[in-house]
Amino acid sequence: MSSPPFFTIGYEQVSSAAVLDTLSGAGVDLLVDVRAVAASRRAGFSKSHLAAGVSERGIGYLHLRGLGTPAEGRQAARSGHYDQLRRIYDAHLATPGAVEQLDELTALVKAGRRVCVLCFERHPEHCHRQMVADLICERAGVEVQHLMAPPV
User: Fold this and answer.
1) Percent of the chain scored above 90 by pLDDT?
2) CATH number for the segment(s) 9-142
3) Which of 7, 51, 107, 152 could form an S-S bond across to 116 if both were Cys, CB 3.0 to 4.6 Å?
């Protein structure tokens, strides 16, 4: 039996219902929030609302704040400076908190969980979750599948 893929999803330009439907459709059993700040002005995407929404679908929720992008990295991403984002996030991944949470996430994936990491940006190539996915796939020997909920 092969390992399930490692999923990622962004919620930019989508509704919370569309994200929940996409997660359910992919058979995700654990949503891992990798935002440094798990708050959003978008309805349904603040930590407590998101956790409640996925729970209603039988999906677990885990916030790994240590895998979030530092403020200067978020600013670089908003400005379209993706190379700068990558440099900042690479340095962040070497911090003890990030290492510990990356190990935790790796263990969940290696245990066969159907894990999806969530962040804001719609396109993974413009987001730190692509870097997380690359590391997890290398460490756990799984493939990545980037989920895209239909835009509003």
Assistant:
1) 96
2) 3.90.190
3) 7
